[in-house]
Amino acid sequence: MGAARAGFEVKCAVELDDIAISSHEMNFPQAFHIKYDVSKLKGEELLRTLSLRKGEVDGVIGGPPCQGFSSIGKRHIKDLRNDLFIHFHRLVSEIQPKFFVAENVPGILDERYDSIRLIARELVSSDYKLFEPVKINAKDIGVPTNRTRVFFVGIHRSLPNISLGVDYSDECFHEKITLVRDGLAGLPVNVEIPRDSSRHLWRELEEYKENNYPSKISRLIDGVGHEESIERYIKNREITGNIGTAHSMIVSERFSQLLPGQIDLISRAQRLDPNGFCPTLRAGTGKERGSYQAVRPIHPIQPRVITPREAARMQGFPDWFQFHPTKWHSFRQIGNSVSPIVSEYLMRSIYDSIFFLKKHSKEFVEVTL
Predict the structure, then answer these.
(1) For the chain, what percentages of helix, strand and coil (3-state, to nearest 5) are there?
(2) 77: phi then psi, degrees, rounded to nearest 5
(3) Catalytic residue positions?
(4) Which of 8, 169, 202, 315 has the fewest C-beta atoms under 10 angstroms from its C-beta?
(5) Is the pLDDT of residue 46 over 70?
(6) CA 164 to CA 156: how far, in whole Å?
(7) Which residue segments constitute the domains of the chain, with CATH numbers given?
(8) What ranges make up the beta strands (E) of the chain?
(9) How far is residue 262's CA from residue 267's CA, in Å, rounded to a whole number?
(10) Residues 151, 141 contacting (CB under 8 angstroms)
(11) Residue 128 CB partners (closer than 8 Å, separation 6+)
(12) For residues 289 and 95, which has the higher predicted lDDT (pLDDT)?
């Protein structure tokens, strides 16, 4: 999403998870989608599928699984998911795009993973100018969430004297601060608990001031978005994802006693402070690892956990963006994602630095994975 917001045309996406790729296809109907294991994917095969040659792809972006590197996980050095960081760089070396961006959690910089980063680096260092990994906290660039991620950026050495518009030695990219209360503006406070979890619940947005956070994140992008979702958002201000969670009376009473920012001692869920930031949203686990739900923050006013749409607002997704209709899959998608505002900030600097003179070229091919 961030790449599209920055001006790139997303041409292709590669993903193995059925739910993730189906949701991406819904929101990027003009892109080519490949359901495949990246560890088995060859650059030559991908280029042939897209009718492109080595060097014709402008950008490859991706977020290799972070669970093996996360400080809240088991951090097994031999976690097979860690190898996908290396496979990402292998694909870059085989495709030879003009640039690449790989995202992960700060834990990947731990010395125990030095060998993994070194192997990945050696795959691309001869062809790419590699910048020092940059940490960006979403709350520093206008997202109402305290969430830090690290980005690995490489620019092809065939592009002379490239200097990005972002100072990578500066860890603070300050813009207007957005608080939880700003992030929730206009969303329904009272939400439904559907009997049928397989269908979307459409609700109308309440009034909020124009030119604020909801308007900023929900601007339309050519060729992006599900047709019905865009139409209902424009015509009726209707959105999906307002799915409530059924709590027992005891749990609701316990939640209602919490002050802003306090953590429930039993569930470990934190009550959102309207004048603060949302804690990092977690993804939970997939079916292959027990289908555990991540702890969800508690609404700042209501005695309930937040809805998928409220979580999407905390992460910076447009109101018209569609997630899976079930809460579990929606929160997995949001928790695993990069904030579109963060990725736009980074991708815009790359776009302006590398492609400024090529923006209107008919031969300009843009492909992001």
Answers:
(1) 35, 15, 50
(2) -65, -25
(3) 66
(4) 169
(5) yes
(6) 13
(7) 2-175+337-358 (3.40.50.150)
(8) 12-15, 32-35, 59-62, 99-104, 128-130, 134-137, 148-156, 203-204, 238-239
(9) 12
(10) no
(11) 92, 100, 154, 155, 156, 157
(12) 95
